[in-house]
Structures are given as structure tokens and as C-alpha cells.
UniProtKB/TrEMBL annotation:
InterPro entries: 2-oxoA_DH_lipoyl-BS (IPR003016), 2-oxoacid_DH_actylTfrase (IPR001078), Biotin_lipoyl (IPR000089), CAT-like_dom_sf (IPR023213), E2/Pdx1 (IPR045257), E3-bd_dom_sf (IPR036625), LAT1 (IPR006257), PSBD (IPR004167). It comes from the Bacteria. It holds the Pfam family Biotin_lipoyl. Belongs to the 2-oxoacid dehydrogenase family. Keywords: Acyltransferase, Lipoyl, Pyruvate, Transferase. Residues 84-149, 188-219 are annotated as: Disordered. This is Acetyltransferase component of pyruvate dehydrogenase complex. The lineage of its organism: Bacteria, Pseudomonadati, Pseudomonadota, Alphaproteobacteria, Hyphomicrobiales. Forms a 24-polypeptide structural core with octahedral symmetry. It comes from Rhodopseudomonas julia. Its cofactor is (R)-lipoate.
């Protein structure tokens, strides 16, 4: 029986990917572990390995195809003894089996993704089985509103409620006219869809707290373009990375109550120690074994500060606080078209030279989009350093699921007062953004003070 090869989900947040390259062609034999394709996500390019043995019967998605949805069938394998030429492509509306097997396997519910989490769509009949993808005999025409009922995926229903849209005013683009996530997004962009009528539960008097009003939607594309003369701008479509960055930034700023703490750190001792350590670095193949940067000290100091103030080394969830044991520090790296945050795991346990070399390696591979998901996902905090661009100070947006992020400005000579006398010192301004649900003001101040102690006494980072 033929085997469907599906577009894999290479990270928890992946919804679509670009099929960059095939390493096989129709007629090739493959075995488990063989690299068969390269997939581009918003963050990286990754190789996909075969998990079954067989012959490539059909390639359904060609190289260079963009925005292929997770779980779409991209190719078909013929098993041993099966005629590859006789294998047929699956019907357009058929759901791709989760286990990759052919028609003898029970088809799963089609899926939409919500923030990277698979959300089962409901069947075409309210409360009915999702196995039957054909309209029922009493449903009349298949337009998503048959017999007065509205057929929409759970995700579409939730989004419509959040945006205050009336589903009955929308047309569905899903199978048999079902309303899906894309229809809601298009309605919001166009400013369409009538406001949903209040339900009885919403209008009935009650002492229970009311559901918060949905967040206001921004201006539609059409409204924005009308503000500029035709031909005065170039339309540059968003790529998947920019869309993901935009979505996550909006999520962070609308769901995380940020507040900010700023401190000035004197770094003359750090600069002196850094110069001495680099000068003493052993040579390997006529190159220094390491070359420390100020950012390497920042990463280690941030990791040690979290260990010194473990109550700040946390992640907020709705049911409980996750109190982390290690300090996994993400570091924002600028790459073409956006940024990515490789994570130095257990940074408190690593020497400065190990942190430096690990960071250089991951930053280089990040710019080539060669990082693995486990190298940039998770983490307990993050560092964003714009000092090399001459930025004196700024406030960074927290990167979920972190509770803190440290924004680092440029080290510069400034006038400071010591013992009532003005002198000159190298000062670096840092700003800690915190999730107020998890890290209160006093706790954040304690953590920033710990960071300042380590940075201003850099020998403590060598112990």
C-alpha cells in the first residue's frame, strides 16, 4: 500500500514551510534515515529524512514551492512489490493520514494550527463525525451554512468571537464552504463581517465578571494604502520570518505586562580583564583559541544573576510558575530579514571561552539558517545587545515564554562623580524588561543589582 510523505512540523510554532530542494526524484529507492528534502521555515533550513522504505512514486510539491501547509502530502512512496506507476495522488479534499499510510488507515481530522499547536477541526456536521467529509443528505448545498447552520472550524469560531465578527456574514473557503482561519483573517483585513450579536449569556444580568472585549483590530491594508499616492511606494510581500516576528511581537506586547528597570554599569575592570584574557589565548593553527567579547561577559553575568536570584529564573503559566534550575540564555542575533535567538544552555556552568566559541558558531549558522529548532527554542531569559550600533540605551520586548530580557547599550566614556569629584569611567547602560506577572519590581531590581555586581567585578565570572 502506498505511503504518503507529509510536510513535517519542524517546530512547535511551524504552520507552513517552503520546500527548498528535493534530494530524490521519482523512481528512486529510499530507506529510513535517507535525506529526501530540504525544508525552509521562518528560522532555518532543515533536512528531512525518510521514515519508511519504498520507491518514490510521485512528487506532488515541486522544489521552490512556498507556504506549504504542515501535514500536506508532498510525495508518495510505493512499498515493495507495488507498481509505482499505478500509484495515484490523493484526492484534493482527502485528509492526509497522520501515520503516513495509505487509504487503509483511518483518516484523521483535518487540522488548522493555532500558535504552532494543532487544533482539530470539527466535522462538517455540528457534533458529527469528522471521518465523513461529504455533506449529509439533508444539508442541501455545501456552502458552510446549509440548513441554517454555520460550519466553521473551532479556531475560526474562536477568532470570530475575539474579533466580534458574525460568522453568518462570511463566506467559507474550506472544504464544502466551511469557514476557516484564513476567512476570518481576510475579513479582519477588509474590515468586513458584521459585528456578532450579543448572546443571551452576555446580555443576562450576572455578578460574574464579563468576558474582556476583543482587542481592537488595526487598519486594513486597503485603508493604509489609500493614505499614500498610487505609485509612490513599492509593495514588498512579507516572508514567513517577518510574519512570524510580527505575530510574536504583537502577542508579547498584548499578553505580557512589561515593566522596565535601568542601571548604569562601570566596565573598566571588565575591559581590562577581557584584554588580558584575549592576549593570553593559546594559538590553534595560528589562530587564537578564543576571542572574548563584552557580550560574552554579559551572557555569563546574566546567567549568574539568575542563579543568585532564583525567584527571577521563572516562566509564567496560567496554572503555575515554572522555576528553572539552569540558566539558558537566549541571545538576539540579526540575520537577513529579521532576527533569531540562539540559546546558550546552562550558561552559568560554562567558561567565558566556551560561551564565546559556542555563540560565534551558532550566530554563524543562524545567518545561514542552519540552526536546529532545539538550538533556538525555549530558554529562561534573553539578551539583546545593540551597543555595537552605537545605541546608548533601549528597552527590549520580552520573547515568550521568557519572563525577562536584558537590553544592552554601548560602553562609552562618561563623566561620573566619586567622592564629590568628577572623573571619567567607561559606562554601559542596561535595561531589564520583565513580565510583571512573574517578576515584581523589587525582585527585578534585585536581579539587576546581581547582574551589575558580576559585570563590575568580572573576576567573579572566572570562578
Amino acid at each position: 500500500m502506498s505511503i504518503n510523505i507529509l510536510m513535517p512540523a519542524l517546530s512547535p510554532t511551524m504552520e507552513k514551510g517552503n520546500l527548498a530542494k528535493w534530494h530524490v526524484k521519482e523512481g528512486d529507492a529510499v530507506a529510513p534515515g535517507d535525506v529526501i528534502a530540504e525544508i525552509e521555515t521562518d528560522k532555518a533550513t532543515m533536512e528531512v529524512e525518510a521514515i519508511d522504505e519504498g520507491t518514490v512514486a510521485k512528487i506532488l510539491v515541486s522544489e521552490g514551492t512556498e507556504d506549504v501547509a504542515v501535514n500536506d502530502v508532498i510525495a508518495i512512496l510505493a512499498e515493495e512489490g507495488e507498481d509505482a506507476d499505478a500509484v495515484e495522488a490523493p484526492a484534493e479534499e482527502a485528509a492526509a493520514p497522520q501515520n503516513g499510510k495509505g487509504a487503509d488507515a483511518a483518516p484523521p481530522e483535518p487540522k488548522e494550527t493555532e500558535g504552532g499547536e494543532a487544533v482539530p477541526r470539527e466535522g462538517l456536521h455540528e457534533g458529527g463525525s469528522s471521518d465523513n467529509l461529504q455533506p449529509s443528505s439533508d444539508s442541501g448545498k455545501s456552502d458552510g451554512k446549509s440548513s441554517g447552520r454555520i460550519f466553521a472550524s473551532p479556531l475560526a469560531k474562536r477568532l470570530a468571537k475575539e474579533k466580534g465578527l458574525d460568522l453568518s456574514a462570511l463566506s467559507g473557503s474550506g472544504p464544502h464552504g466551511r469557514i476557516v482561519k484564513q476567512d476570518i483573517e481576510e475579513a479582519v483585513e477588509k474590515g468586513g463581517g458584521q459585528a456578532a450579536a450579543p448572546t443571551a449569556a452576555e446580555t443576562a444580568p450576572t455578578s460574574a465578571p464579563k468576558t474582556p472585549a476583543p482587542a481592537p483590530a488595526g487598519m486594513s491594508d486597503e485603508q493604509i494604502r489609500k493614505m499614500f499616492a498610487e505609485g509612490s511606494y513599492e509593495v514588498v510581500p512579507h516572508d514567513s520570518m517577518r510574519r512570524t516576528i510580527a505575530r510574536r511581537l504583537v502577542e508579547a506586547k498584548t499578553t505580557i505586562p512589561h515593566f522596565y528597570l535601568t542601571s548604569d554599569c562601570e566596565i573598566d575592570a571588565l575591559l581590562k580583564l577581557r584584554s588580558e584574557i584575549n592576549a593570553a589565548a593559546p594559538a590553534i593553527d595560528d589562530k587564537p583559541a578564543y576571542k572574548l567579547s563584552v557580550n560574552d561577559f554579559v551572557i555569563k553575568a546574566m546567567a549568574m544573576a539568575l542563579q543568585a536570584v532564583p525567584e527571577a529564573n521563572v516562566t509564567w503559566t496560567q496554572e503555575a510558575m515554572l522555576k528553572h534550575k539552569g540558566s539558558d540564555v537566549g541571545v538576539a542575533v540579526s540575520i537577513p530579514g529579521g532576527l533569531i535567538t540562539p540559546v546558550i544552555r546552562d550558561a552559568e556552568k560554562k567558561t567565558l571561552s566556551v560561551i564565546s566559541n559556542e555563540m560565534k558558531d551558532m550566530a554563524g549558522r543562524a545567518r545561514e539558517r542552519k540552526l536546529k529548532p532545539e538550538e533556538y527554542q525555549g530558554g529562561t531569559t534573553a539578551v539583546s545587545n545593540l551597543g555595537m550600533y552605537g545605541i546608548r540605551d533601549f528597552a527590549a520586548v520580552i520573547n515568550p515564554p521568557h519572563a525577562t530580557i536584558l537590553a544592552v547599550g554601548a560602553g562609552e566614556k562618561r563623566a561620573v562623580v566619586r567622592d564629590d569629584r568628577v572623573t571619567v569611567a567607561s559606562i554601559m547602560t542596561v535595561t531589564l524588561s520583565t513580565d510583571h506577572r512573574a517578576v515584581d519590581g523589587a525582585l527585578g531590581a534585585e536581579m539587576l543589582a546581581a547582574f551589575k555586581r558580576y559585570i563590575e567585578n568580572p573576576m567573579t565570572l572566572l570562578i
